[in-house]
Input
Amino acid sequence: MYSVGEYFVECVANHVPGDGWTATARISRKEDWRKLIETPKAVFALSFDHPTKRDAERAAIRWARERVSRHGDAIEMALNECTRTLQDRFQARIGHN
Output
C-alpha cells in the first residue's frame, strides 16, 4: 500500500496470458480507514502490458499519483459511489434482522 496525498493506493498485479503483467489500482481515503468498519475503495483496472510484475506495479502507482494530483474530483466521485453502495448494503442487512 502506498500513501499518495490524502489517499492510500493498493496495486494488485495481474498476469496476462502471453507472459505480460497489468495492474489494478485500489484507491481509498486515509480518513476512512480510521472511522469505518468497511473501507470504500475505488477500483481502476489499468490497461497496460509490462514484462514484469514489478514494472506493472510501478506503472500503476505512477498512474495513481498522476490521477490523484490532476483528477481528484473523479476519484472523490468514485469513492462517494462506493460509500453509498456500502451504506445501502449495511441498511439492507440491518433491515433484515
